[in-house]
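User: Batch of two.

Assistant: Item 1 of 2:
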Amino acid sequence: MKIISVTKDFIAHTLHTDTKKEVYECLKKNMFHFISQGIFDEAGNLKKTELLARLESVDGKTLFPSTFCPIIEANGLDNIFDQLVVDKAFEQIFYRKPSIPCSINVNPSTLNASFIQEVDRLYDFYLINPSQIIFEVLETEKIDDYDSFNKTLFELRKRGYKIAVDDFHPLGNHNALCIENLVEIDTVKIDGEYMKGLYNKTNTEWTVSDFLKNIENIKAKHPGIDIVVEKIEDEGMFLFFRNLLAHSHVENVSFQ
């Protein structure tokens, strides 16, 4: 397998605090693992799983995204980290052979021609069925050229991979990505904090009618698209949104 070196990039941009050194060592030695978070259908059956990366420090401590993501972002290593994660995800899927599709988080700027070449290399090495993999586009960056971005997504979907948009907020002014400009997507995951606020009625600006209207708009723009409601914390929240969406005849809904 190709080894991706982050040493030069990291040293060039990083102050040597203890936490940053820990993150550097994790990346340098490829010390991270995945935790799996299930995505369930309306009947509660496991449908997909999301692979979430966690770094492992040399002393065995787990570093969570709230610790390592700001360091990675501040040093411009988002794309390098994405590629490390994708490499390891292909490896894990190859050895564990899950029976359901697995989603992998990537930043929008990672999705370019070089990324496709790397994915093709991984496919040639592992021969994993592309339908087993969902590339989940993070709501982290604005896209300047949607034509080029959609072409990249098209190439991935042409190969059999699926595309999801993560943390989409039904109120458009909260989003970095403009979903109306995305034409090559299979799934939209609704922002979990929004769903929690809607369920707990903690924000008067967020109403059920607005939520349903925006879901209808997404479905109109992308017929047949899957909708995933994130951060379902208990059975009451699951039943509330399941019944609400079923009553409104919204199809292809999952819960995470």
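Item 2 of 2:
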Amino acid sequence: MSSINLCSLHCEMRNCEQLLGSLGLFAYRVGTLDKLNGALSDYGPENCRGFPRVTVKERKGQQTAIERQNIHVASFSGTVISPLIYCSSPM
């Protein structure tokens, strides 16, 4: 794969993860986060399968409602070497 393709793929993966974060917030608010994680648990690298992909991280002492910033989406692309390597390498 060329460096341009890898950069584009990484950007699309990040877009999907951002979308899943918003979906995760909605699922949390309606009480279906477990079902969402169940549906997503079979995707991603094999060593990450079976684990929750979307989690809620409440800040210590947080007294406000859970917002998008509290939702964490585990990477579906596994360990990624800095995307700048892919995006900035010469063709």
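The beta strands are 54-56, 71-73.
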